[in-house]
Amino acid sequence: MKRFQQLAWPYIVWAVMMLVLPMALIALYSVMNQGNSIISFSFTLEHYAKFFTDPDFLLILWRSILIAVKTTVLCLLLGYPIAYYIARSTEKVQNVLILCITLPMWINMLVRTYAWIGLLSNGGIFQKILGFFGLGNVELLYTEGAVLLGMVYNFLPFMILQIQTSLSKMDYSLIEASADLGASPAQTFRRITLPLSMPGVINGITLVFLPAVSSFFIPKLLGGGQYFLIGNMIENQFITVGEWNFGSAVSMIMAIIMMLLMMAVRKVEQHNQGGKGV
Amino acid sequence: MRQKKRRIGKILMVLSVIFFYLPILYMIIFSFNDGKSLTSFTGFSLRWYRHMLDSSDMMEALSTTFSVAVLATIISTIVGTISAIGISKSKKVVRDLMDQVNNLPLMNPEIVTAIGFMLLFITFRVGKGYVTMLLAHIAFCIPYVMLSVMPKIRSLDPNLADAAMDLGATPWQALTKVIVPQITPGIVSGALIAFTMSVDDFIISYFVTGRGVKNLSIMVYTMSKRVNPSINAISTLVVVIITIVLLVINIMPMLASKRKKTDVVRRRRMWIPVTAVCAALVAVICVAQFGGAQNKRPFEGQTLRIYNWGEYVGEHIIQDFEKETGAKVMLENFDSNEQMYIKVANKEAYDILVPSDYMIERLISEGYLQKLDKSKLTCMDKLNKAVKGLPYDPKNEYSVPYFWGTVGIVYDKTKVSEEDLKKEGYNIFLDQKYKGDIYLYDSERDSFMMALKSLGYSMNTSDQGEIDKAYQWLLKCVGTMKPEIVTDEIIDNMAQARKALGLIYSGDATYVMAENPKMGYYLPDSGTNQWSDAMVIPKNAKNVDLAYAFINYASDYDGAYDNSSYVGYTSANKKVMEDLYGKGGEFEGIDAYIPRTDNKKDEVFEYNEKTKKIISNLWSKVKIAASNK
Fold this sequence. Notes:
Chain A has 12 helices and no strands. Chain A is mainly alpha-helical. Chain A starts with 7 loop residues before the first helix and ends with a helix.
């Protein structure tokens, strides 16, 4: 068994080079004074202070987390039954359905988002449909609803794929056994199905929540410039303002918060897993 | 009960398929649009397919996208799976640590990962291009693969491999014959996710690529000024190819399994999606290569590297120039001056850049540009006096004007009275009559220009008091007027008359007015930003003579005519401007096409780093205030 350990080493070296080092450079920038040169290094925490002393920044951080939470919850509520349905189909149908869900994502995201702009815009199809119900003047585009829709549209497949993967190899005789022993379907789901699919659920949450927090393109296109999230702010600092140091600090803050959140989620999972065995 | 559950699942499944495919359907329909709009269908035509096939650029981007994605997926799937197995057998500390490390690219906004990679490649002096793009893609794909594979490995019996080896299997056999088959679903879904992430990636690719290598996302994103249905056409092509290949591949094993229904076939089914996918991709790449090859001229010659705004050249100028000179033009695009600056400041070598006024001033002052050899420029006399000798480069020692114009108000003549415009100027953006019916343009420079001008100040002011007043003006606007803050979507939106008025570049107004005669363009007397974009040659240019040839070509009548008539921005070539505006011209009588030159209050932007930062941050605050409404 031990010898498989060696398989990890090349990747650890690679990960240090390609993942840790770039982040270390960003971390370095975040505690550096103005300027982009490592030679004239001087330590400062002013960029962090700047962020935490400005209520506006804290507000958009909060708002970004909130919309990411909403996206994740929606994806989970929609994605779980779909994944369950797929996982209970025959293998052939499963493959077809998975392809069905994955294929749209191979079309450029921006092209698909432009299509949503057309669908949601004033005079677009959705507004016309609402018109039948006497809601013709409801603005759809450039609202929080539009942003939420765009995020769910983009990230839902990840949730489905992850949950489906962990459900597909589940032993279904467990469910029958549980039913035979007198458990209600709800009990079976809570005690058997859900715990067994937990790794997939956690992964799904990771794959939806993390990109949703930092996404800047969907809010920009579907929410308009007035829908400003933390991802937009970081992009803005790097690309428009040119304050790489402050931008780096903001991303470090975000990374740390996300890391803590994900650790908390994993802890909850482990706790549940521990409980299940009894 | 079970039946009912299945039904709910089925309904959701059907709904979600509709949800996923509705935009795709919409996209396909609009690829046949006759007009340039992505949101308003004006008639059936195949012009965008022609445009796509004519553009070797698009075909190359298509093939790059899929070849990078296929390679990155294969490599990251193999490496990711093997490493995941290795890590799962490692000590807990290593396992937890690697978990966190793998989360890094997922956790950070893409822009941060992108800048990180860029810094890395610069630090190690790796020349950017296809290889760096591939490396970056592999780097961010592996964590996705591992994330999918890990739970599967965890749910394996840890003694499985030992048992296999006790029974005489070599470690390699234990790995490939015992472990991998057990975790195949995880590997497949990991590979699918990796592929998806790679195909869609823009920001990371953008900052790690070089030498004109670009994928579809880069092309589409930098096109933002003039997004047109050709992107729908190329996406539709992808859909068609994938569908055909999938159909063929799915029908074949079905026939085979009818003949011989054994376990072997059943086993292979798991690999059907994988093989199907691979075949689909190879087909896409082949078509792309083939399509591109038609127009590629493998001339043994020189290469000209141009870094220009997206969709900022005419339809034929590049091909014509290549034909005439035998050179190959590599066109890279940016969609903001600052985006361009990051690459130039990081020593990326181009032969020609086309930045705006204030950015040219900055590039000159920071020593990035070379002085032009006037004896090699044959075009200066043909250019409009009004765009020569501007403050950013008073003697045109560094720059040759390309496009120019103003920033003004585009308005719906049926909704906005000209009297209001004359009376109020930019203050019309505070007029309650138009509440909820206006667009602001998401650019701090132009928004502050509007506010400063309406208050009677210079737009180049560095006086903190004046800037604060302008900030208050903008806060009042977003606080009371419910504006929508958009970027280039304003072009299509105003052409479709979705709001009454908005702030816009004159070149975009020209396009809007050409599309919709009900639209007008107004320049307040209180002044405007007289902007210009010009061609410059950086100091690290590799092919200076060819750069001069192109500058002359693009400034000459034919090149300038092609550019201006296609893009809609005002040509710096005087004759071209007059002809396009005059009788029978493309923009006959559209006043937005002729920039105002007789107002003393009009100014040219000057570069001031400190003010620029202050204004940028204030503009973010304006947007935050707008989103709190």
